[in-house]
């Protein structure tokens, strides 16, 4: 056996879909789970607030749209930059210490942003904000996958995705209460970041340790272990970020009012948050791979139907379901990560997810915008549909290869019918 094969066997743990577990293994540590989800939800609220807040401030100052977009791209770039270092930092500092450190540095960064009020100074500061935010997501997801019993992993990860999406969407809504001028909106984000650290401190005794078994796996090494899984994360990120940033352009090209477009985007976000628990339950019944394939095909169907029903009442249920199934691709990816990997490969996988999510967020919108410039506004559903189609084809190809691989050893059965 080659060293590469040994490495992969040490890093990958494939669990049966309906493995029998003891009642002790099925028990859910509710206090730890609630603390983890509360921490990352409050963090998502603070992050969801900063995107529109800083964009509104820059727009008031007459900043060009291109520069506003470049400024916003600094946060996902921070995700990309920090991802390769998270597994090492978690091992050396400890996961809880790293989470508390990030919850302390993030509000300091936001204070610096509030004090400077300069677009060019905001570039490195927003990069730092992404660097400090990313470890908390990676660590929280690793904790949650570690403590989630396998038979209930679908519902738990669906609940996690729903609540975090809800927290992210509450951020922009809070601006309607406090406005976008002065310190009040910044104070909401600063306090939210600090609350994250306090929650982690409160639940530290109940938190699991970062998995240490298996050989150390880097983010780069994880790309060789699960390329299709990472492509699914890229698809989910590019889909969400592209639609949120360019749907207004698409709707305006079709003569839709701004209020209607904003309502449709809100409906998309609500569907994103509401449907993840149901999709997690479906994954427990039919498997995460089948459910991911369903999400990819349903997202593709939404892309095909969008041009014909955009001005009809059917657009509302379409956008609601579209939001759920498109983000469901990411939820299914988290479930598969927990099913297929354990030990140090698990935290490396979560860090790789964060890296790819940042890439999808940065690449998706500009690429789709270029397509829309070349072929018109229908370039939006065309680009997203092509991405979902590619994912669906690759998933079906992988399922076929897995079926052939599983049946291959039994083709040469001896006369006694045994499979050796």
UniProtKB/TrEMBL annotation:
Gene3D superfamilies: MFS general substrate transporter like domains (1.20.1250.20). It holds the Pfam family MFS_1. The chain crosses the membrane at residues 30-54, 66-86, 98-115, 127-147, 159-180, 186-207, 219-239, 259-279, 291-309, 315-335, 347-367, 379-397. Coiled coil: none annotated. It is a multi-pass membrane protein. Residues 27-400 form the Major facilitator superfamily (MFS) profile domain. GO terms for cellular component: plasma membrane. It is found in: Cell membrane. Keywords: Cell membrane, Membrane, Transmembrane, Transmembrane helix, Transport. PANTHER family: TRANSPORTER MFS SUPERFAMILY. This is Probable transporter.
């Amino acid at each position: 056996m080659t060293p590469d094969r040994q490495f992969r066997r040490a890093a990958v743990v494939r669990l049966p879909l309906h493995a029998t577990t003891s009642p002790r293994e099925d028990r859910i540590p509710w206090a730890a789970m609630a603390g983890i989800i509360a921490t990352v939800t409050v963090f998502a609220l603070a992050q969801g607030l900063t995107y529109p807040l800083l964009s509104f401030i820059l727009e008031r100052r007459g900043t060009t749209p291109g520069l506003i977009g470049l400024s916003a791209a600094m946060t996902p770039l921070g995700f990309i930059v920090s991802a390769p270092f998270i597994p090492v930092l978690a091992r050396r500092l400890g996961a809880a210490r790293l989470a508390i450190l990030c919850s302390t540095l993030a509000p300091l960064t936001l204070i610096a942003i509030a004090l400077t009020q300069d677009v060019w100074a905001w570039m490195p500061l927003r990069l730092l904000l992404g660097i400090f935010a990313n470890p908390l997501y990676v660590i929280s997801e690793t904790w949650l996958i570690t403590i989630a019993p396998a038979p209930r992993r679908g519902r738990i990860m669906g609940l996690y995705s729903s609540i975090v999406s809800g927290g992210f969407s509450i951020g922009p809504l809070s601006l309607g209460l406090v406005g976008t001028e002065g310190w009040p909106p910044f104070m909401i984000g600063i306090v939210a970041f600090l609350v994250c650290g306090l929650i982690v401190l409160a639940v530290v005794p109940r938190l699991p340790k970062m998995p240490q078994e298996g050989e150390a796996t880097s983010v780069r090494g994880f790309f060789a272990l699960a390329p299709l899984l990472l492509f699914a994360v890229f698809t989910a990120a590019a889909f969400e970020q592209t639609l949120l940033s360019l749907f207004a352009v698409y709707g305006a090209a079709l003569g839709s009012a701004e209020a209607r477009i904003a309502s449709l985007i809100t409906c998309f976000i609500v569907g994103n948050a509401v449907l993840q628990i149901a999709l997690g339950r479906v994954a427990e019944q039919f498997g995460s791979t089948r459910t991911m394939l369903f999400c990819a095909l349903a997202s593709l169907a939404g892309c095909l139907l969008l041009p014909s029903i955009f001005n009809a009442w059917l657009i509302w249920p379409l956008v609601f379901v579209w939001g759920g199934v498109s983000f469901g691709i990411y939820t299914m990816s988290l479930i598969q990560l927990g099913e297929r990997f354990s030990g140090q490969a698990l935290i490396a996988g979560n860090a790789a997810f964060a890296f790819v999510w940042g890439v999808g967020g940065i690449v998706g919108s500009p690429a789709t915008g270029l397509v829309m410039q070349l072929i018109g506004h229908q370039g939006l559903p065309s680009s997203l549909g092509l991405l979902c189609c590619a994912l669906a084809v690759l998933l079906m190809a992988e399922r076929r290869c897995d079926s052939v691989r599983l049946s291959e050893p039994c083709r040469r059965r001896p006369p006694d019918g045994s499979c050796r």
